[in-house]
Design goal:
29% helix
């Protein structure tokens, strides 16, 4: 199943994404960031979508992006 990671910096954006996901489960990375993993069905294709609300500073966001890529190995990251 393809996987996408979506990193948001605002609670409103996080909620806007999470309402479209089903079967949400939390996963905490060793560094402490809590992610939610869910499923998204579009045009008969199911995606695993991983979301997190992160700090919006450039340094913090880039580090978290690197961690998410390494840990989840997504097909797409936003």
């Amino acid at each position: 199943m393809p996987r996408a990671v979506i990193l948001t910096s605002h609670p409103i954006d996080y909620q806007a994404v999470s309402v479209y996901l089903s079967n949400l489960q939390e996963e905490e990375l060793p560094q402490g960031t809590v992610y939610e993993l869910g499923e998204f069905l579009v045009n008969g294709q199911e995606w695993e979508v991983v979301i997190a609300e992160i700090d919006n500073s450039n340094t913090s966001a880039s580090l978290e992006t690197e961690r998410a890529i390494e840990h989840f190995q997504p097909n797409l990251i936003f």
